[in-house]
């Protein structure tokens, strides 16, 4: 089932036709589904490659960002990130840019793959610290590098309120939406975040954190790459167990105001996902509900 209006249909036949036209040397390699997120569909190509296709025309700019900036950021980062090896051009059958990346071996972060959550949280903090230290290399918060998660909470107040109302209507008493709304309001009452703009990954959830031998190995999916204020970057720690959250928080030395704003961003993103994907992506709705339950159970980092 499509997740978005005007979603571009993708199947193996389409992918092979793109390869035959643009990279014929790869067209006969084995091809198999490699997952699908809210923005992209992926196919593993042979042993060493990954085809990444945007779901909608609007997601095409994310592909271009990765192609432009990942090769420039990678040398400064402490863990592997995707390496684009082909910038696919639009065709009549697939009217948006697409990518081929090097395959990165690893498993999604989770209880069956992470050996020690405190170590994992500290490792993730190292990645975030180093990403935020990378020189902007002339990039500014404009165009494809301007995303709401690097901006002001106040600019999002209307749609966050609508999303929380949607959660009330769908979940009733299953979720304490009033408490979540109070957390959102508490963050809005704080002084606006300030400080220099930095590079932001934008979506450091477990699915984008690859594990090998029990440790963080690589960070993938830079479709949300942007330039802005860092508070929202920390919001996904509520997708991790308490030990990881605490270790992450301690390693970065974040202050209380940053924690409150990061928590508000975590509420905003998860609350918006529930009504939007309610009928189309139940697994993602479950992820959003789990994040909100974690926030309610552990409103502080631990």
TrEMBL record:
The keyword rRNA processing does not apply. One of its GO terms (molecular function) is kinase activity. PANTHER family: AMINOGLYCOSIDE PHOSPHOTRANSFERASE-RELATED-RELATED (PTHR21310), BIFUNCTIONAL AAC_APH (PTHR21310:SF42). Residues 32-265 form the Aminoglycoside phosphotransferase domain. This is Aminoglycoside phosphotransferase (APT) family kinase protein. It holds the Pfam family APH. Keywords: Kinase, Transferase. The keyword Kinase applies.
